[in-house]
Specification:
The protein is mainly β. It has a single domain (43-174), classed as Jelly Rolls (Sandwich). The protein contains two helices and twelve strands; from the N terminus they run H-E-E-E-E-E-H-E-E-E-E-E-E-E. Strand 6 and strand 7 form a beta hairpin. The longest helix is centred in the first third of the chain and has 13 residues, at 3-15.
Length: 176
Amino acid sequence: MRPAAVFLALLTLAACSRESPFTPIPPQAQPVTALDPPSVPCLFSMTETRADQFIVTGIPLGLGAGANRWTNEGPAVHCALPTPGPWLIAMDFILADVTFRATGPITITFTVDGHELKRLRLDKPGPYQFRAPLPPELATPGKDRVLQASIDKPYIAAGDGNKLGVLVSAMGFVQP
């Protein structure tokens, strides 16, 4: 036999070894079933499942209502602020062209626990992102606060008489 063939045979035999017996993977930790905490704990996007539990009035409940939900003339949400301030009141919404043509300019008055904080006059339809400071005396951590937006001239639907305000996509409190 040739030396190269002998060497190759010996090399092949040397590479063979017995496999170690199978060892199963140890038990793993159970997956967490809780939802991820919100990135902004007191700003409620209308697409979030948790939004409904923080709506006080004026916004239809249920995810089926869509990413932008029609409000009535006084939508309100509540939240217990998790940390000391500063905080801002916040509302992301659309003033719809179809309602604006009927009502003209509108004014939205923002209140927290009945304290008027800001008036916003809207002279044209379109998307808006409203932010205003929450006074320090209202920014107490752990105390449930109610943010309400009162619309002075809601659109009144001809067919059913429903009052429509704006299309809200998020509402609540944010830190700057």
